[in-house]
Protein 1
Amino acid sequence: MTINETRSGLMLPEFARDEASHPPLDSPAYHSSALRHPKQPLQYLPHYLTEVTGPLLGQDRCGEHDHDLTAQHDDEPLGERIIVSGKVLDSNGKPVPNTLVEVWQANAAGRYLHHGDRHPAPLDPNFSGTGRCMTDAEGNYRFVTIKPGAYPWKNHDNAWRPAHIHFSLFGQSFTQRLITQMYFPGDPLFYQDPIFNSVRDEAARERMICDFDLESTVPEWALSYKWDIVLRGPQATVFEDDEEDDD
């Protein structure tokens, strides 16, 4: 982190991009990145007060069942019920309280409720696949959902995406916003997935995989996974530069 002095004399933080861990803007194995990555040199935009003090996203952004993707319809969705929880941390390992965490995912059959998803798998009328919550005073978040299924996509021959959940976090300002994917341990599709493998550092890839946590399961109701999210610093969770065009 460096400090930038604005014209008004404010001293604001600047964060350099971690080129060693985060995926390159153009990842040739991930074919659609060739159509979306910048073709001209990036232009530096200094951070001003708006970027480092906003957004103001409070608890009123979340409805009663937004954190529970299994309780948003008249009946429960099909699939394996799971709990996903953890902490949101800053670069110093301190909890980030009262920040908005959003998720979106495929259903248990590996299909998104989206007009662009033409995978011939069934839609679930009781599963929309989106949720949100606020972290508590200790930086904790918690979602109840259905374990997503793998799904095919047309990036390469017989290509399948590993099961994953998309996360969006705002941290304490726009400059800390993170969009990433959480994966599940032991997935056999990791080796052939160009999105997962566009993260060049093995340790950084491992930080995208959650941990099964028997202690926090709810007996006879749901298995549980733990996943802490670090917004900046050497232990930062890897972010995406683009969302997938198939999601």
Protein 2
Amino acid sequence: MIRVLLAEDMHMVRGALIALLNLEPDIEVVAEVSSGDKILPMARQHKPDVAVIDIDLPILDGLSAAAKIRETMPEVRTLMLTSLGRPGTLRKALAARVDGFLLKDAPPGQLADAIRDVAAGKRVVDSQLALAAWDRGECPLTDRELEVLRLAAAGSDAPEIATALSLSTGTIRNYMTTIITKLNGRNRVDAIRIAEEAGWI
């Protein structure tokens, strides 16, 4: 019997997943949580084989929780669920060394199979997402350009970014022009959208 901890903040979704998984003859949901900070304490208490974790959890996000499990309970395998099929999100998940990554809209049987594969020591990645991540490639922006874009995405204008980074406003405008060009964006807003969808900021 594969023991599963399920972390999902939406109650109806969590309930539906538990009901579906408990129909499987070889899978048992032994613990459920609605926020990321509860994952590790519940994992210590229930000793699951696989932790199925939604990436977007309150208090502590799913990837941070998965990293904590890997540090302290490496015997527990981690399978991430996400509703956002962003290549950058997959790259972050792989960088966090999770064992599996699946979109929430995958067929129910696919989730059960993914849990079995992850429990058996295999790595599972949604094929469409893997192709998208491969196609997208690496981020073309430098660390400084990413810093400028993150501040812009947070709503700061050029003078505010210049103050925050101890640079001139003209330098920040030059950075923004370079960023927009590198990302093939139409403008600053478009560049932010492109970078967010790729998971670069």
